[in-house]
């Protein structure tokens, strides 16, 4: 049987960005059963280092221009296809002309986003170049269907397109599995795994973590993202490595997910919590956005509203091993039922097909 053709537009090379990893590549094998797939991305490893690590502004701008030209060529010379899937944006710069071209290239365009990408950043010049609000609305209006990661994003998208489907961010429960970690020497580990951009969220509860350290001498803290020293806690955040992520998650006894109570956080889809819970690690999270919904469905931990809440819930879990095991088990079962690739992969494929 002849397969349909699917073109996927991402920004980063395969498995570089969490949104593309968890909202596309997890489903890729299932999608390939129904589609011949072409994946077009913009930045290679060299450009990645320049854009996100270099301090040379001129060099960054040069890379942005090169990638703009690259994307234009990809779109202009694209052969006709059945479905186009766009993740978050086509480029950092906004070029409305691209969507007009793509409408002639495909029978259907689907736009997927899992963050409040329509909100402005803190930098005026970046907002001028990216035009996040008008650009996101442009994609929503000119797509035949929209996929979003939570209800907050769905309500925003529905203002501009009636064909909006909520597909939560999911995890592969055959990859994120519970493991027995030995030789912990009676230590209890409070863990956090994030990225460079979310380190400020962790730092927002440093005072809580200091008090926990003072209260419990057998508690250790383990944080994974980008190598950074936290002087208040006298420890380093260690570098994230994909090859070790599952083992590190399983070394946690308690996972934490602090978030500020703002509009950007309302657009988050709870990925940290889902990776903790899939590994049967109970978690404590800020009562912001989708976090409460995940905890309600999985019964895998607590949501908190204040510093005293953080200290109370962390203390309860530190002092009660059986409760940690119970919540971890419930969390794992809840993720398998509501937030697993296994549950959502056929739904995702049907959205592309229908």
Describe this protein's structure:
The protein starts with a strand and ends with a helix. It is α/β, with parallel strands linked by helices and 354 residues long. The strands form two sheets. Strands 9-10-8-7-11-12-13 form a seven-stranded mixed sheet, with helices on both faces. Strands 2-1-3-4-5-6 form a six-stranded parallel sheet, sandwiched between helices. It has helices at 18-25, 28-32, 45-53, 57-76, 96-105, 124-130, 132-141, 151-158, 199-203, 206-215, 245-251, 263-266, 271-278, 291-298, 307-319, 321-338, 341-353; strands spanning 4-9, 35-40, 81-87, 106-113, 145-148, 164-166, 188-193, 219-225, 228-230, 235-239, 254-257, 283-286, 301-304. The chain has two domains: 4-170 and 341-353, Rossmann fold; 188-338, Rossmann fold, CATH 3.40.50.2000. The relative contact order is 0.11.
Features:
single chain, 354 residues, alpha/beta, Rossmann fold, 2 domains, 7-stranded mixed beta sheet, 13 strands
Distance between the termini: 17 Å
Q: Topology as H/E string?
A: EHHEHHEHEHHEHEEHHEEEHEHHEHEHHH
Shape: globular
**Portion of residues within helices:** 40-55%
What ranges have pLDDT less than 50 throughout 5 or more consecutive residues? none
Strand order of the largest sheet: 9-10-8-7-11-12-13
CATH architecture of the largest domain: 3-Layer(aba) Sandwich
What is the arithmetic mean of pLDDT? 93
CATH superfamily of the largest domain: Glycogen Phosphorylase B
The radius of gyration over CA amounts to 21 Å
CATH class of the largest domain reads Alpha Beta
Oligomer: single chain
């Amino acid at each position: 049987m002849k397969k349909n053709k699917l073109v996927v537009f991402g920004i980063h090379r395969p498995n570089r960005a969490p949104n593309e990893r968890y909202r596309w590549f997890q489903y890729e094998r299932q999608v390939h059963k129904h589609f011949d797939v072409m994946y077009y991305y913009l930045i290679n490893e060299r450009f990645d280092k320049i854009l996100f690590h270099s301090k040379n502004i001129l060099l960054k701008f040069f890379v942005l221009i090169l990638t703009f030209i690259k994307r234009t060529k990809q779109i202009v010379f694209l052969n006709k296809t059945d479905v186009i899937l766009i993740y978050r944006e086509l480029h950092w710069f906004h070029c409305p002309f691209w969507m007009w071209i793509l409408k002639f290239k495909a029978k259907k365009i689907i736009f997927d986003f899992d963050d409040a990408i329509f909100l402005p950043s803190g930098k005026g010049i970046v907002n001028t170049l990216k035009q996040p609000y008008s650009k996101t609305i442009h994609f929503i209006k000119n797509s035949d269907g929209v996929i979003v990661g939570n209800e907050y994003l769905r309500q925003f998208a529905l203002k501009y397109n009636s064909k909006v489907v909520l597909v939560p961010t999911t995890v592969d429960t055959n990859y994120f599995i519970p493991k027995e970690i030995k030789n912990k020497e009676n230590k209890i580990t409070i863990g956090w795994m994030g990225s460079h951009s979310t380190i400020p969220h962790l730092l927002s509860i440093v005072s809580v973590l200091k008090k926990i350290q003072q209260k419990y001498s057998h508690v250790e803290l383990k944080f994974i993202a980008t190598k950074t020293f936290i002087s208040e806690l006298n420890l380093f955040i260690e570098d994230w490595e994909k090859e070790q992520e599952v083992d590190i998650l399983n070394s946690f006894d308690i996972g934490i997910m602090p978030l500020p109570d703002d509009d950007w956080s309302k657009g988050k889809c709870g990925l940290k919590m889902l990776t903790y819970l899939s590994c049967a690690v109970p978690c404590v999270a800020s009562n912001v956005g989708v976090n409460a919904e995940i905890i309600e469905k999985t019964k895998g931990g607590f949501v908190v509203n204040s510093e005293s809440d953080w200290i109370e819930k962390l203390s309860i879990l530190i002092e009660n091993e059986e409760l940690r095991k119970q919540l971890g088990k419930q969390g794992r079962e809840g993720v398998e039922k509501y937030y697993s690739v296994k549950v959502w992969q056929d739904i995702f494929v049907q959205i592309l097909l229908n």
